[in-house]
Input
Amino acid sequence: MFETELIHPPQIEDKFQSLNPAIYPSAVFLFKNMEELIDFVSSKNKNRFEYSRYGNPTNRNLELLIAHLEKTEDAYVVSSGMSACTLPILTFLQSGDHIIFSSDMYLKTRNFIEKTIKKFNIQSTVVFPKKEEILNAIQPNTKMVFIEFPTNPFYYVIDLKPLSEELKKHNILLVVDSTLSSPYNCNPIEFGADLVVHSLTKYFSGQNDLIAGAIAGSKNYIEKIREFNGELGAILPAEISYKIYRSSKTLAIRMQYHNETTLEIADYLYNHPKIKKVYYPMHPSHPDYSIAKKYLKGGGCLLTIELDGNFEALKTFCNSCNIFRIGPSFASAESLLDPPIVMSHWDVPEVERKKMNIFENTLRISVGLENKNDLIKDLEQALNKI
Ligand code: PLP
Output
């Protein structure tokens, strides 16, 4: 079971039989003599380390853990969730290729696909996060589909299995940013995804004290990404790797708590007269509820609401909360409020913003690990002020 797998993953052999993996803060790994060096460079099976930009034993233990939890062959840890998202695109796409991505998505990833990679002559098409819309957007030069699972910040859940089956027929790589699921709630590779990416900053860390990312998939794909990043250099320091490894041990119990508490809070808000809309994938009111139930063990810590009011109401509500505080990111112990109109979409022109469903009364809420009744009381008193 996941809880047990999490605590007993495969690890690199340690001659001292240390219970916890060692931290190797070393850029360089030495060779005893010239023969050992020649052996290393001439062998394809590189079972040791040379230089930490190419790999580090502390990082390797975290990679083995992530590959194990995602039920795939290999994984690779990198400097941020953004490098985890951008590396597969940079590694596998060439000038003249086409990529499809979904309209609901972390804005920085969207900007990278829609704007930044245009300068490498890679074209893109944005579609609503639905299997049919994605398939209808395929062109002869489409090489990759990039989606979030569920999407952020409205938690649409794409029917992954039939999508991946169709994409395989066209030789199109399916890359799934599964940050919002975490391997506790879903393993997209089991449903045909080729690569899964994570912002480890979120559930894996759970502490809001670091930034990191990971990519998981077959050995062949991961090796190519590792080689590419050997030149790019978006690597993760060993000390940070160990912090993530340490925090991961509580991933399952944190996820259980997030799933249960957030669903109850979503239901409380759904029934509140001052709330116009609630988006939570495992709430029966969500448009993708039936697909979500098929793929997800739980809905995670994020929900999004539309308050019954204007920007003033949003300001009053955010300013009145005491336990929930205003800040980006999610999945930490502390509950956070993210008003996207200000936090992430301030510079997005109004017409574009409205197309993304971001209004002046939209608020993303990250439910932390505080007591559920205290959280509901905090929301109640703040709603009474608007
Ligand atoms: N993917 C998703 C779904 C995210 O929400 C984020 C950040 O919020 C990222 C990727 C980027 O991760 P990081 O902040 O670790 O670079």
